[in-house]
Design a protein that fits this description.
255 residues, alpha/beta, Rossmann fold, 7-stranded parallel beta sheet, 7 strands, binds nicotinamide-adenine-dinucleotide
Amino acid sequence: MDRFAGRVALVTGAAHGIGAAVVRRLAAEGASVVLADVDTAAAEQTAAALGPEALVVPCDLTDRASVEAAVDAAVSRFGRLDAVVNVAGGALGHPDQLDGGTDADWAATVDLNLTGPARVVRAAAPHLTRPGGAVVLVGSVNGLAAFGGDAYSAAKAGLGVLAKNLAVRLGPDGVRVNVVAPGTVRTRVWDDQGGPDRLAPMYPLGRVGEPADIAAAVAFLASDDAAWITGVTLPVEGGVLAGPLAALDRLADGT
Ligand SMILES: NC(=O)c1ccc[n+]([C@@H]2O[C@H](COP(=O)([O-])OP(=O)(O)OC[C@H]3O[C@@H](n4cnc5c(N)ncnc54)[C@H](O)[C@@H]3O)[C@@H](O)[C@H]2O)c1
């Protein structure tokens, strides 16, 4: 597939995990990619495998000026911007509010996972191709049901209605805005919890996700194949939201 030939995509959180898979997928489909991340050393390693049409820019989602500088650097290097994918985010490991979490913990988590993506769209929207531009925000199943992590989950849930508002505002210009909400995905965030596979029994499809599973959905929503889809949250989650039957069956089996 060559859905992004001649197009430019900026991806935050592109150094590691899901974001790295997204830039690999978009580049494989012909995009010039901008890897925007706080970890520029790792982003350079990811970019090295992508060829000359990959640009690394420093970007801290929690700093408005940094986000704006990253977008400006992308536009001045490539002269256009067709897709923006916000992948950067994370649970930050703070305790939940009922377990002693502070207002500062809450604010930091919401700043990274909700305000940060809004900063990215605010900076990028004026530059997006009209018509045909696309925004994809990476949320989480935590924003759709109770999986723990209250501040993180509330922030990820907020992306759904943020996308709807942006979809309505940008729709008349031919710019689409959608969310991909992953279930458990095999990335480094699970390393200190013994890896993600212990959660596989919750999943009707019998396994956790791989970064490439999420990248495929992001690429679809960023492409013209999704030309009439905007304002939606697409769960990409191996069926975990379908219901508790997989876990109940395994409980009954004693597995
Ligand atoms: N891994 C999962 O199971 C899972 C499940 C659902 C949703 N998600 C979401 O997917 C996204 C990517 O997660 P991942 O598992 O690939 O994590 P990861 O830690 O491997 O990658 C996150 C990337 O974001 C970058 N980043 C962190 N803070 C940043 C900041 N302030 N500004 C710019 N970049 C920053 C990191 O350097 C890193 O490259 C996150 O938004 C996460 O909440 C992950």
